[in-house]
Amino acid sequence: MPLRTRNAITFTIIVFAYGLSTAAARECVPPEKPFVPSELKAIERYEDLLRDDFESYLTEIAGYIACLDDERRRAFRESRDVTRDYRLFLDLVDQ
Question: What's the average model confidence in pLDDT over 39-59?
Fold first, then answer.
């Protein structure tokens, strides 16, 4: 098999693999901010529920930030790999 054909097949496989990895990327969804009533009576009446909402938010925001960190690392790896493959592509078309 000629080198150019072999390189083209390799490049096609790599592009297909990127499509799969991008589709599998995790979606980071921020938690909803807790609602705080403006009236003191409502705050006192629903204190336990409001406390639970705040604690849930703080737990969920930590997971959201971790998700963003993971996605950032994944995006950097992907961009590095795509840059490498772009160089391969340019080498193929410049032959």
Answer: 96
Q: What angle do CA 50, 63, 54 make, to 5 degrees?
A: 10
Residue pair 75/44 in contact by the 8 Å Cβ criterion:
no
| Sign of the dihedral defined by the CA atoms of residues 60, 27, 10, 79, in that order | negative
DSSP string computed for 63-84: HHHHHHHHHHHHHHHHHHHHHH
| CA dist., res. 70 & res. 66, Å (int) | 6
The Cα 73–Cα 75 span in angstroms is: 5
Q: Kindly report, residue by residue over 5-44, the tens digit of the pLDDT.
A: 565 566 666 666 666 555 455 689 999 999 999 999 999 9
Contact indicator for 11, 86 with CB cutoff of 8 Å: no
Q: What's the predicted TM-score (pTM) here?
A: 0.61
The one-letter amino acid at 7: N
